[in-house]
Write a structure and sequence with these properties.
The structure is a homotetramer of 406-residue chains. Chain A is an alpha/beta fold and 406 residues long. Chain A has a six-stranded parallel sheet, sandwiched between helices. Chain A has a four-stranded mixed sheet with strand order 7-6-8-9. The longest helix of chain A has 21 residues, at 335-355. Chain A starts with a strand and ends in a 9-residue tail after the last helix. In chain A, helix 1 crosses helix 2 and helix 2 runs antiparallel to helix 3 (72-83). Residues 110-114 of chain A have low confidence and may be disordered. Chain A has two domains: 2-228 and 338-393, 3-Layer(aba) Sandwich (Rossmann fold); 232-333, Dihydrodipicolinate Reductase, domain 2, CATH 3.30.360. In chain A, strand 8 (308-318) and strand 9 (324-334) form a beta hairpin. Chain A is built from 13 helices and ten strands. At the A-B interface, helix 1, helix 8, strand 9, helix 12 and helix 13 of A face helix 1, helix 8, strand 9, helix 12 and helix 13 of B.
Chain lengths: 406, 406, 406, 406
């Protein structure tokens, strides 16, 4: 795995988790598909190897200490392994993500310079090729590399920009140093050029524009996204199907989140927040089959919690005889603890898809995402149990009807 | 529908709801299968007609006023229709349900008298035959009668009693006036003898003993139960599959309920409460695939809420790296508003099953129950979405594989 | 009482409540000082008479129906009395309160016209004099008139505006039609000129600028404010003193509110919201004695609840050994039901203060307000129990040491 | 301090906390009276020294590890000091506390033997005298010894037993080996005989019977109790005064607690639970001035939380116009973290009272207790802010009017 945002809480937790499994002191709690057996080509957790970029150049032992996810004994067990993982210089862009910065940047102009974005792309491609040829624990080559975006949320680019419409326009824009191309898209492009599947666990726009889809198919590269479905939205896609099933009409759904980690800090910028709220907001109407007019989603940066997060939901329901009821859900969760195992599963499945010859958007991975990236025109299934069914069907048979019957 | 406990909050709400639909002033909110169309033989809500027994002889307008579920305008619209529905004398037994009584009782000894239970059974059978032949709105015959048990929860009978093991032993015990036979079983027996499907929406033991199953099959009568899955347990069977799906290990699940209606009053008797907790307690382990040692369920009688109910759950989860998380769910619900529409659906489906020639336990109706009554040896599926899938498959095709893949 | 915003939910609830008390069918639940007896000069609830202004000219029976606070029986009992209460044309200003409007406006230019604000003031003064001389139930004169501002929240004016610094500057600005003077201040000025105590139950800036304080003292008029302390902030001023008492350090306090009434609609305008958050935000630090850096307050307009309101708080505490704890409070309240009785008490006490010869800010009424208006330089006491003690002391003795020992 | 139950979570946390303060690495968070200065005779936290009894003979380092209250760094800092604190053999009685046992018992028959209880009392007196003469850090004498009961909750003794009515009857019963005398009373008696103030932080019956009060006064020994007011009940005595102040009528109050530590285990015995519920149940009516008929308190043993505890409250309120509202409070707290600092304060104040010449029940310490032990016939004040005021008044002046005006 080559991770964009390797020094973040999710990535460092994932790296530590794999290391603990290798040491035999971890459990498979939280790993949804630990029980899958006999699936040809599916990588083992213990065989995953990590590299990647981060604007902060600290090694992962230091990063993990800052994030405070691991307990004391776990830190002791994995710190020497984590010390050996040092992020490569990254290609950030303050225009797209204001609250989070760092000085571990690639030594070419990150955007808009006279030399265009091409040198940056070349740099990232070189990173990936070097990792593929010598990233193994023994310094040898890797079987495959999957790029996973775990970086802080960027603001929306202008989705109507013609540069995003076709592969040709996009490549020309890269050459011209078009300053409307966000970093997530640059990484996606580098992954595609290198033949590495690209998984976008963030709300940023990565491979989910026609230009990148075209390029992904052309290069035989699967892409998957976006925005990991971990806490509140995961619960929403569990509860809403039940309310629909019982014909309890959702009159309003109020969701608020408080979190204090680097993610929360990034979202303290209204532009980044808009991206996040965009992916969180869409799940309800599709599941319920009607628009919920009072669907409100809030995210607030609140430091006392650090990586721990709290999501509070209130749902107003109307039942038989028009009588009103309320459900309140309070989820005291750990952001990285929920996200890290999903990232590991995604890497395994994206690799499996590539082995199976698939390219372009992997809609069977909708189970993992708030806003599943599907082929143009396809219906998006949000209900968690339907997504799980479709994913397991694909794992077993190689194909799946993603969208459930309406 | 012939309802045991016709004067209760659930039954009076169901009757009022059908009346409002007939008047065109109701909506189908809360009716899960209002959208089913073109299913041959499925009764329309508006065609349902109500009779039944209650220890309290007040007409349903008076009962509805006591329960306070309907709002002022709804009461005005339906009160004259409800006044015309007067419960028949009922066959209660203080030995089995202590907190709730009344004086509208059948004029034969309810249990243990020298004359045995046979006269009581004959009385109930006569009630049902009279209702079937002349219960229509115009005084004419009904197409079919379904008996639905909505009475207060009874204490457990002795399930090892040989009287419950075979049809012959049971009928002999009825003749002998065996005092270990609870009222719910007497009603189930009367329904079976009359060829009426029996639906047990309560935790009491009704048709779920071998003797009654044998009789039901012999008389070609479908039976379904038990204990309507309305609020907290419904949510449990929605959330637990999601925790299983995400491999979030459930370390403990604490559930408490406060309610102040007649149901709550009945459960203030520890013996009745034990029956209720029995049906509530079993759902988790089957869904999760491992035993949850700290699964605590409390029900407390608390009068300020009346028919409104509050269910508070706390769930302790263990995720990746052994990290702990918590989910709290607070469901401010209306007991009768959730239950009444399920009762209407059950009557429609039990009737449909009889038209389709089925008899004995209808496992495809598990969707409606906390403790689905299945044929001996069959696995019980508790996950709501799997139950819904199986039910819809049966509706469409006439058969269903109820238990999902393990 | 002459109420600014007479057609709102709080005012119509107050009027209905007094009417029910007069009819003998109300209770004193919610009236904090119903038990005070033998206090010379304190008006009886039943003797209160209501008039006032509103941008919506509907009579109060119609208004009460829209707000939906009263139940059916209460509406029936008071509707004829409420029909007789019709708001006078009001002096609103869209510049200061954008979301809520109406066409029941005074027939002079409300602001900024060539004629200045003086005609508006004269109009309001005439309203008050007419009410005082003939507002009694029998058309006779009233003993006294108290003006209470219950209008929707206005945006902040520019508090550094020299027009607000002295009485002379203010009166000149009124004459000049200065467009920076918000409606609440115009009403306060009219009240002062007429010798009527002015109570500001809203977060708007009314009499809480030096110019108005000077005028109030000069005309012998007591003023009180501001922003009624009803739900979440009331709870905050109860809990925070306890945390201080137990030395539980407040590391963060996250508060969110959802409400769907006209108040909520007004606060959907960010400028009005800022005023509201201003008065809600200040209470913690003063009570605790240190700044709470993560004190976040949110108010969201959410329609399913109407006048019912929900305030959810999460508090992060640090105790012995630096260990963290959390308290969550969910208050399902009725905005108007909490506010209306406080408004009645305020009118009684403001009148009592005037009888006792007081003028200027009444700091002993801090018990009722989120942001007590105190004389310049005085310490503000926020702890509810200290405020109650000071108020009762003043009621009994005519004076009070408001601020508790630090 | 000589602690009954020295190996428990509260005691070991208190010992660790004092050690951290001595090391300069602790803070005064959670210590309510850390800010008191210049009070003659008030001991400093750092000067407290600990001894005491426990049925489990493990040293406190081992105990602290089991309880899991301290974090890793704190454990490292204090473990060597804690290793040096080893509980003395204790005088338990399985008849009074069934769920918690141990084998570190005094070498005389604990109850009902032919030799009577006198040898046990003599043994405890000898423990205290030895501790007083040589318990100092340097092996020298202590200025004073306070006995604090932190043991697991015992079942109620028979309060009508004549043995508890007078000093003479009690001493005769001790001599006779009367088996109705609970261990807490035996410890209280030993403390009194030795001239050591006795503080009862548990719900058990200790010095709160006439016989012990008489003995305490005769020996010039202050006693205080009972049942530390830490979490849910503390909040109750903060919120109830506010509801009373605002005239919000409490129609019902439902409280449930889940906890998994040794305390919770002891309370899993219905007899011990009854004692606990007794002290928790009484606080409301006194504060509100009317009986709350639906006041329900539940405590459930629930292991996933260990020493962490959750208290969930629902309060039903009736306000103006009879309208209903609800408040829910969820307190995620740490039992020992809340209790330990109160224990330290109690020891300091009990000692101060003895220095000031007081004996018998110290009603000014009601601030710390769920069920304040007051002289016979005195009104019990439960409101936290009134208790705090009275305590501070006593600290400053040496006397206090405990009960506020009604």
């Amino acid at each position: 795995m080559a991770v964009v945002g390797l020094g973040g809480a999710v990535a460092s937790t994932a790296v530590a988790g794999v290391e603990l499994l290798r040491l035999g002191s971890g459990t498979t709690d939280g790993l949804p598909f630990a029980g899958l057996e006999g699936v040809a080509g599916l990588a083992r957790y213990e065989d995953l190897v990590f590299g990647g970029w981060d604007l902060c150049g600290d090694n992962l032992a230091k990063a993990a200490e800052v994030h405070g996810v691991l307990d004391y004994r776990q830190m002791q067990a994995v710190s020497s392994a984590l010390e050996g993982v040092v992020p490569w210089p990254a290609a950030g862009d303050e225009e797209f993500c204001r609250r989070v910065g760092g000085d571990n940047v690639v030594a070419v102009a990150p955007s808009g310079g006279s030399t265009g974005l091409r040198p940056v792309v070349d740099h990232l491609v070189a990173d990936l090729e070097r990792f593929r040829s010598s990233g193994g624990r023994d310094g040898g080559p890797l079987d495959a590399v999957v790029v996973v975006n775990l970086a802080s949320t960027e603001r929306y680019p202008d989705l109507a920009d013609p540069a995003f419409a076709t592969a040709a326009a996009f490549e020309a824009a890269v050459d011209a140093g078009h300053d409307g191309i966000p970093p997530a898209m640059v990484y996606a492009y580098a992954a595609v050029l290198t033949g590495c599947p690209f998984v976008n666990f963030t709300p940023s726009v990565g491979a989910d524009v026609p230009a990148l889809e075209e390029l992904a198919r052309r290069h035989g590269v699967p892409v998957a996204g976006k925005d990991g479905k971990t806490g509140q939205t995961m619960m929403k896609t569990v509860l809403a199907p039940a309310f629909r099933s019982r014909a309890l009409r959702v009159e309003g759904w109020y969701s608020t989140n408080i979190l204090g980690n680097r993610d929360g800090q990034a979202l303290d910028d209204p532009a980044s927040l808009a991206s996040k709220l965009g992916t969180k907001g869409g799940v309800l109407d599709g599941i319920l089959g009607y628009p919920v007019e009072d669907h409100v989603v809030r995210i607030d940066y609140y430091r006392p919690r650090g990586d721990a997060k709290e999501a509070w939901d209130n749902i107003d329901l109307v039942g038989f005889l028009g009588q009103r009821m309320q459900v309140k859900v309070d989820f005291l969760c750990r952001d990285s603890v929920l996200a890290a195992p999903l990232v590991l599963e995604l890497a395994r499945f994206a690799d499996l898809a590539q082995q199976r010859g698939e390219s372009g958007p992997l809609e069977q991975l909708g189970y993992f995402f708030k806003s599943p990236h599907v082929p143009a025109g396809a219906r998006v299934e949000h209900a968690l149990h339907e997504q799980e069914r479709a994913l397991l069907e694909w794992v077993r048979t190689g194909s799946a009807s993603v969208a459930g019957a309406e």
